[in-house]
Design goal:
Order of helices and strands: EHEHHEHHHHEHEHHHHHEEEHEH
Radius of gyration: 26 Å
Number of domains: 3
Largest sheet: 4 strands, antiparallel
Strand content: 5-15%
Number of helices: 15
Strand order of the largest sheet: 6-7-8-9
Number of strands: 9
Structural class: alpha/beta
CATH architecture of the largest domain: 3-Layer(aba) Sandwich
Distance between the termini: 30 Å
Helix content: 40-55%
Bound molecules: tryptophan
Shape: globular
Length: 432
Amino acid sequence: MTAPTTRFLTGITTTGTPHLGNYVGAIRPAVQASLRPGTESFYFLADYHALIKCDEPARIQRSTMEIAACWLAAGLDPERVYFYRQSDIPEIPELTWLLTCVTGKGLLNRAHAYKASVDKNLADGRDPDADVTAGLFMYPVLMAADIIMFNAHKVPVGRDQIQHIEMARDIAQSFNHLYGPHFTLPEAAIDEAVATLPGLDGRKMSKSYDNTIALFAPPEQLRRQILNIVTDSRAPGEPKDPDNSALFQIYQAFASSDETAALRQAYADGIAWGEAKQLLFERIDREIAPMRERYRALTGNPAELETILRRGADKARAIASPFVARLRHAVGLRNLGQQEGATATAKQDERPALPGFKQYREADGLHYFKLVDASGRVLLLSTGFASPRDAGRAVAQLRDGRIAGLEQHIRRPDDIAEYELSSALALLAQAR
Ligand code: TRP
């Protein structure tokens, strides 16, 4: 039996141009993670989020193109992962509304980003809500919709986003409490091993400090930016301290441990700053150059990018659309022709044939079950249970549409898409 997959999901707000810090801190580890077996990755361009902080349409369009090209150039395989643009998924704003209606206003009042704006207004003696949009206030609900739409388990984010993931859990829990267990509760995944890259001035590389090095600038510009990294005034021949050197830390983020050890030695031996900068330039350029080519090709052909994103959206919507249909039903946004209970009669026969559970015993003496659809396709298989009662209990739970806690005991065959299984279970739950 294969272990159940862990779903990773993260969004990138489309307001800026990718820099080396984004690459080392987010893009490179995400591309690597997407290659690990047993994982399913959802990476998306959070352009609805971009509208909250940016009112320049051209900048949003440009940034969306650059970030999309950047992730693909860095090796993300859109066939292997779900790579899409948030605004291509109309189910996301739809879910945002369903979630808005179960979210306490008090919860949103406590969100750091909103509170910081209010506190600043108060400190400046202004109206507390001056220049605060409802978009900023609602940001955590939109983000919760992004995450729980795909029942993500792990959300790789920076520390500043942890509160938002906790809010997504709270919101998912409120919905589950009212309408049944539809959502997986997500967790933030903070990778301690991933470096935060220092910027030109030695502080964390960040657009807000204006100390970034562009990821796909032409090589000459990359070289010029690297020459601008602050160093101390030690002369050539004087030993230098690698541990307080932004230059060294950036090098380390790109180099092998042998290369890093060699540069450490060169520091001790008094390498000139100019020479160290040249080494850094060459090392970064070696990793980036092939991607830069692909980046140029992609940004030179935006129509192709558009096609890739549309295809990603189709894939994502194949999950989102039946899921939202089920959620609409759960909250009571229903087809009036399909009354539940006593009034449902005439139309019964036109309903899709339901999948069914089959329980059986194997030669190993254990008790199993599988879920088979009307055409005989196996949608789900169980692991072995010690008694028929244990197997029956798991079946009963699944009939209720609750998967939580059973992940270890069930497996989706490789030829069955996740949404096929979830819609089959939804159908069963609705039929009750
Ligand atoms: N708010 C996140 C940021 O600014 C971006 C984002 C939007 C996101 N939706 C998300 C991250 C969902 C993780 C999951 O960095």
